[in-house]
Structures are given as structure tokens and as C-alpha cells.
From TrEMBL:
Domain SsuA/THI5-like: 58-273
PANTHER family per the UniProt record, alphabetical: ALIPHATIC SULFONATES-BINDING PROTEIN-RELATED (PTHR30024), TAURINE-BINDING PERIPLASMIC PROTEIN (PTHR30024:SF47)
Primary subcellular site in the record, as a coarse category: periplasm
Signal peptide as annotated in the record: 1-38
Family, per entry: Belongs to the bacterial solute-binding protein SsuA/TauA family.
Listed name of the protein: SsuA/THI5-like domain-containing protein
Coiled-coil regions listed: none
Organism (species): Ralstonia condita
Amino acid sequence: MGVFTCKDAHARRFRRWVTPLLAACLAAAPLIPSLALAQDPTRLTLMVSGTAKMIYLPATLAQRLGLFRDEGLEVELLSQPAGVDAESELLTGFAQGVVGFYDHTIDLQAKGKEVRAIVVFSEVPGEAEVVSTRLPATVQAMHDLRGHKLGVTGLGASTSFLTRHLMAQQGLSAGDYTMLPVGAEHSFVSALRGGRIDAGMTTDPTVSRLVRNGEARVLLDLRTPEGTRAALGGPYPAACLYLQTEWLEAHPDLAAKLARAFVRTLRYMHTHSAEDVAAHMPADFRREHPELYVKALAAALPTFSTDGRMPDDGPPTVLRVLAASNANARDKHIDLSRTYTNRFVDQVRERR
């Protein structure tokens, strides 16, 4: 049976301290599997780049619906607010997979690491650039943020990649603004409310809450296909499940089980109402405004994939965006065919 776990601050600090040591040990002995996996290969840990973020809802929903269990898996979900931290847990062997942004597969290949997305949740980032209502109404576009402090979940996180690209589109360089890592959800709200940042990129339900409370307004919206294409020039596959390629090739049966659980989850999301889906979420996800959560979820559900496949024109768009702020992605040859596979989700479709 799946276990939902969100480590507290002390546990996160411990993992940040122990991660470099563990990485060194793995580098010295890369063929030693984790003890838990060696004892029971059906027990898996997935890092989620923020379990409460609506863009990663399929992870929690799959668990709450018992779909991992249906596949004979015991899956533990651990939450990290920034994708860059989640990928670190994957590379050290602490986790078998990450529910995060697809762009990390490209970034990691540029660094000599091989990971592959096997289920794509959506073709939109699901992010929005929000600006504090303390700023004057003359701030109407990204170029108006010159000289301001912009919040991202983490440096090297997908929000930082997107922010760099969107500012570069306006002719602004990294020196024209300050980018601060402030995490997500509570920490993002606190940073905006306390004036540490003037604007920033975050997801629902945080965006909807800030707007409802009159603390922020949306400057640029990447939560819809139309807004995404207008800003980024095409579909932008973002939230997905990605695994280390070496692990994937060694455990294709387990990868297939994960893919089936997630595709079944996506189908559920398209055949049930927002109220039905929200009812399965932990109460703290909905917080003090459950009706606002349901409204935001109703708007988000149509943007989720029905089959988990990577769109053909998605990876080139992501590479182009990433190259704007990542010299490795720009200067090195990236083989996009090695960053994802539709093999496992196609197997699910064939079994219908």
C-alpha cells in the first residue's frame, strides 16, 4: 500500500547534508543497489517537485486511488519544492524516479547524465508570473520587471529556466534583474508578502490564492495552451515522470507498472469532475478555500494529457527555451530522442 510522506524541515536539511556524501559513495561503487530495492524491488520512492502543486496532482491522485497498489507496487512519495533538489535525490540513488519538469532531462544530458521521461502529464508548464499588487499598474509585461527581484523555486529549477528565457525575449540579461530562490507554496507567499520578491513564477493553487487575496496579479500566464504557445512558441511538455536511463533499462517491468498507474490516473482525471478529483486530495491541499481549489482544478484538468505521450513538437520547444539560459544545452549536442520514450505509455494504450 502506498505511503504519502512529506519530510519535515529537519529531514530535508539532513538529506541536503548527506546527499554529497552519498553521491561520493555511489560514484565509488555505482553498481551497488539500494538496500530497500535489493530486498523488495516493488518498493519504490518517487521524488515530487512539490506534492501540493496542481501540475503534479497525478502523483498524489494515483496513490490515493490505489493505482500503484493495483500494479503490485508500494510507492512512497516524497516532496521537494524545487525540481533541482528532486533530481539530486534521483542521481544519488535515494529515489527511483522524479515527478518533475521534462526540461531536467535535457539539462542533465548536457551534464553527462542520462534520464528519460516515460509519462508526460501536460503540454503546458502550468506556471504563471505573478506580480505584487504593491507594484504600480504600469508594470504590464515582463520587460517592466527590469531592476526588480523575481522569485523562483530554486536556482537551476525549471522556474529559473523559464524566467531567464522570458526575460531574454525582452532583451534583458541576467544583470538587469535579481532572481531569488524562494521555494513554493507557503515560502513563496511569504517572500512576496514580506517584500523579499516583487514578482515570481509559481503554480496553482498558489496563483489563485494570491490573486483572490488581492496580493498579486497575473502578469504572464503559462497555465493554458494558448498562453504557452504565445509566450514560448509551441507546446511545452513539463510535468512528467522521469527515471534514470540505467535503472529504466534494468527494470522495464517496474517502469511499465508505473506508466500504467499514471495513464490510468490521467484517464480518471478526464472522466471525473473537478469535485470528484479534489475529494481525493489531502485536506491541507485545499486549505481554507476549498471552492477556490476546485475552481482552479476545473480550469487545469483539460490541460492534462489523456494518454501520457510526448508530443512530437514538444522537446524542440523545450530545448530552445532551455538554451536561452543554459550554455551547456546551447553549446553541446543534445540528442532529444534519449530524453524521453513513449514505449511504456503506448503499451498501455495497446492493452485497452
